[in-house]
Amino acid sequence: MDNLVLLRRQMVEIGRRLQQQNLIVAAEGNLSVRLGGRAFLVTPSGVGKGALRVQDLLEIDSAGRCAQGRPSSEWPLHRCIYESRPDVKAICHAHPPWATAFAAAGKDLDGSLLTETAAILRSVPVCARSEPGTEAAAASVLPYILDHDAVLLGSHGAVTVGPDLPTAFALLETVERLAQVTLLTALARGEGGALPPGVR
Prior knowledge:
This protein has a single domain, classed as L-fuculose-1-phosphate Aldolase (3-Layer(aba) Sandwich), CATH 3.40.225.10. The protein starts with a helix and ends in a 12-residue tail after the last helix. A hairpin with a 3-residue loop joins strand 7 and strand 8. It is an alpha+beta fold. It is built from six helices and eight strands; from the N terminus they run H-E-E-E-H-E-H-E-H-E-H-E-E-H. It has helices at about 5-20, 75-85, 95-105, 115-120, 135-145, 165-190; strands at about 30-35, 40, 60, 90-95, 110, 125, 150-155, 155-160. The relative contact order is 0.15.
């Protein structure tokens, strides 16, 4: 089977899993993969990821040119990451609720809390808050994405990268679990006062 067809099917499946696992709602989130050279496959704007069809996915170049359809408004963010990280072949951006709580509170996640995350996530830093879909949002990841495969966007969600889309998605799941356990650990230790407002 053609590799592009496989990538399209993979992206549709991961979009469905994002919604099933409540990592996004409505038309939130976006996915992309590097096709080679200056070509990329990206999710369209305004389409719920749980309802994606293979024909909905768009091919785009690094300048944002797309033959048909309207690509995700977050393409500048994806492009910035691809340009700064040649090793990255796929990007997953979503709004997982536990991790987004940390993003809204401006708190990094400490990967050393759990033995299973310590080796793969030293930390998940929070980027400066900026307007989604803008060049400023893209620039906000630059201080961190060179040294981290997962970042939190200020009051916005999480972005993970990888050598392929399943790996980036699995890392997003890991970030969300780390955020959940971090908050529950604070409660278990009786550190409710250290939690962000509204989480207690």
